[in-house]
UniProtKB/TrEMBL annotation:
Belongs to the ATP phosphoribosyltransferase family. Short subfamily. This is ATP phosphoribosyltransferase. Signal peptide: none annotated. One of its GO terms (cellular component) is cytoplasm. It comes from Viridibacillus arvi. Residues 53-203 form the ATP phosphoribosyltransferase catalytic domain. One of its GO terms (molecular function) is ATP phosphoribosyltransferase activity. Keywords: Amino-acid biosynthesis, ATP-binding, Cytoplasm, Glycosyltransferase, Histidine biosynthesis, Nucleotide-binding, Transferase. It catalyses: 1-(5-phospho-beta-D-ribosyl)-ATP + diphosphate = 5-phospho-alpha-D-ribose 1-diphosphate + ATP. Pathway: Amino-acid biosynthesis; L-histidine biosynthesis; L-histidine from 5-phospho-alpha-D-ribose 1-diphosphate: step 1/9. GO terms for biological process: L-histidine biosynthetic process. It is found in: Cytoplasm. The gene is hisG. Its EC number is 2.4.2.17. It is an enzyme of class 2 (transferase).
Amino acid sequence: MTELTIAMPKGRIFEEAYEMLIQAGFDLPEDVEISRKLMIEIPSEKIRFILAKPMDVPTYVEHGVADIGIAGKDVLLEQGRAVHELLDLKISKCYIASAGLPNTKLNDIAPRIATKYPTVASHYYREKGEQVEIIGLNGSIELAPMIGLADRIVDIVSTGQTLKENGLVEYEHITDVSSRLIANPVSYRMKNERIQNLVKRLKKCVK
Ligand code: PRP
């Protein structure tokens, strides 16, 4: 059996992805999340898991150091990497939306949009025929309109709690997001049987 390396996202998505792998019969150790280990081997299955930042999962897969990965559609849309999308796991569901302070209209010639999704945001406003200025941030995006850095944000909404607690309202629903199983194109060809088997096992667990 050929060895398979799977890149898993650390953080929020991890828990649901972990549950799904356990359901699919993968014998993952219980303390994965508590431990600081970044590589977990399952010799009985000839599988090796690497734990990466969610934004970095497609990078590992595109470069072929991971054959398979679990990545959010938000990250895939933003990065447009050369990977195959094999399966919608329908976990970690959320959406990308624009938001801002209540009752504010965009009158400026080029309103400022703060986001950690510059490509998604530019594409969205270009399609709408609206000219905007994109301000790239790495996190705590909700701060931007509060402190006067931007007129709107484009960000992930999951429970809506962060918007609410920071006095922001949603303006536009941009796109739905969920986690996807992705593969390196060469691995997909060379390790097709193994990968198809994994897809089959996971497909059964998609709700
Ligand atoms: C994400 C996103 C929002 C928040 C949405 O941030 O950027 O800020 O979660 O979730 P909610 O609708 O359930 O409140 P994350 O926690 O990943 O941290 P970040 O600010 O570092 O991007």
